[in-house]
Amino acid sequence: MHRNTDIELRLLIEAIYLKYSYDFRDYSGASIKRRVNHALRQFDCNTISALQERILHDPTAFMQLLQFLTIPVSEMFRDPEHFLAIRQEVVPILKTYPSLKIWIAGCSTGEEVYSMAILLREEGLLDRTIIYATDINPRSLEKAKQGIFSLENIRAYTHNYQKAGGQRSFADYYTAAYDYAIFDKTLRENVTFADHSLATDSVFSETNLISCRNVLIYFNKNLQNRAFGLFEESLCHRGFLMLGSKETLDFSDYSKQFTSVLKQERIYRKL
Amino acid sequence: MTVQNSYWANQGPVEAVVIGASAGGVEALLTIFADLKPGFRLPIIVVLHLPDERRSQVAEVFARRLPVPVREAQDKQPIEPGTLYFAAPGYHLSIEHDHSFSLSQEERVHYSRPAIDYLFESAADVYQQRLAAVLLTGANQDGARGMSLVKELGGLTIIQDPDEAQVSTMPRAALDLCQPDCILPLRGIGRLLVELEHNACY
């Protein structure tokens, strides 16, 4: 027997899909439930049904709810060892290509995008690279486009940058103004920010490298397989796939189509 | 201690044990696991607050000392009976309705990720009265809210006796929020785990 909250949660997610085409039906349940419960308090709703009524009739309220349903928790050069491994093991191969297309899937507020752009610039690759940075949350994409981050995190990012093999002073890449660090806009000259859902959209370009980190943990196995399918389709022969430190291809339907380059750093290559 | 003991005589069989520990936790866990015998069949899932290091050695440390399999809980992995799982550092750990794990990077709770609250709340949601939750020593308030939900949904709730805890803040915070089924010293919790196993449902 299902409890009321479980019934209501399922109905809410169905309503969001039918009305707004955002598909959370194959997201991991525990985290979605927590975030909806958190939103209930902020929306001052006593039940999920009440929240459903609100968002169904008010698109602005839905856009607010979307901010709770997506997880904008990110940092620059998160897991520095991962970026160091890209520099040491992947960049030498990328340098042999005349041009590069990179897809950062689930880019959130852009921290991964700027990290990748800085790394590519230092390796002399940024000018011949096109980066597609995609996310389902338009507000996150807007923030990513601006490239303005809170100054209070910069110390941690600087530390990460150095551990990731950064070659310059991290301060070269931003201007501090009040409580913010405004990142060099030339870093995003070749970046296209776009709305894209791994749950409902299809492949839009062939790519040489895809980075999708700490996105797939929010999906169930079914949706993880869908995402891996998109990546497999988009990547060129011997293209690279980068995942988050606790994400793996190993138990997916696509484990045979990829080989692990650096297991610990979750860097894979399409066969 | 026997199954007839008053504070959990009415408790039905248990399917899983969740444990939360913070400061002083390694020592406390080693004490309560001292009575574990090979062939113990309940899964035990632990959130232990540790400094944010990407690769934790804690599973290896416990694996060397305990007669049951010890693993770091992995995303989407099904929970196996008789296995002791630790939450990975830097990620929240939850239990899904299909009895598998899921990881997430939502904001920290009480400065902690993994948060004991998230493990306890998700486990309570899944196992309801078939869950035992244990809260040990620690220097913050994590686990108190989770413990209350375990209690509310009929699970067995056990809090380390704060007078015995290396740091009593965490057990006291939980005691302020809910009246557990038992308040026990570490040795008693260890024996209780063995008793739970005898009363487990397979």
Secondary-structure topology with pairs:
The complex is a heterodimer of chains A (271) and B (202).
Chain A: H1 4-20, H2 29-43, H3 48-57, H4 59-69, H5 80-94, E1 100-105, H6 111-122, E2 129-135, H7 138-146, E3 148-150, H8 154-163, E4 174-177, E5 180-183, E6 191-195, E7 207-212, H9 221-234, E8 235-243, E9 258-262, E10 267-270
Parallel strand pairs in A: 1-2, 1-7, 2-6, 7-8
Antiparallel strand pairs in A: 3-5, 4-5, 8-10, 9-10
Helix pairs in contact in A: 1-3, 3-4
Chain B: E1 16-21, H1 25-32, E2 44-48, H2 58-65, E3 70-72, E4 84-86, E5 92-95, E6 101-104, H3 116-127, E7 131-135, H4 144-152, E8 156-160, H5 169-177, E9 182-184, H6 186-198
Q: What is the CATH T-level topology of chain B?
A: Rossmann fold
Largest interface: A-B, 23 and 22 residues
Gap between N and C termini of chain B: 22 Å
- Shape assignment of chain B: globular
The quaternary structure here is heterodimer
Range of helix content of chain B? 25-40%
H/E element order of chain B: EHEHEEEEHEHEHEH
The CATH class of the largest domain in chain A: Alpha Beta
| Helix-strand category of chain B | alpha/beta
Number of structurally distinct domains of chain B: 1
The amount of beta strand of chain A, in percent, is 15-25%
Known CATH architecture of chain B: 3-Layer(aba) Sandwich
Low-pLDDT stretches of chain B: 1-6
CATH topology of the largest domain in chain A: Rossmann fold
Low-confidence stretches of chain A: none
The amount of helix of chain A comes to: 40-55%
**Amino-to-carboxy terminus distance of chain A:** 46 Å
Strand content of chain B: 15-25%
Keywords (chain A): Methyltransferase, Transferase
Protein name (chain A): CheR family methyltransferase
GO molecular function (chain A): methyltransferase activity
Pfam families (chain A): CheR, CheR_N
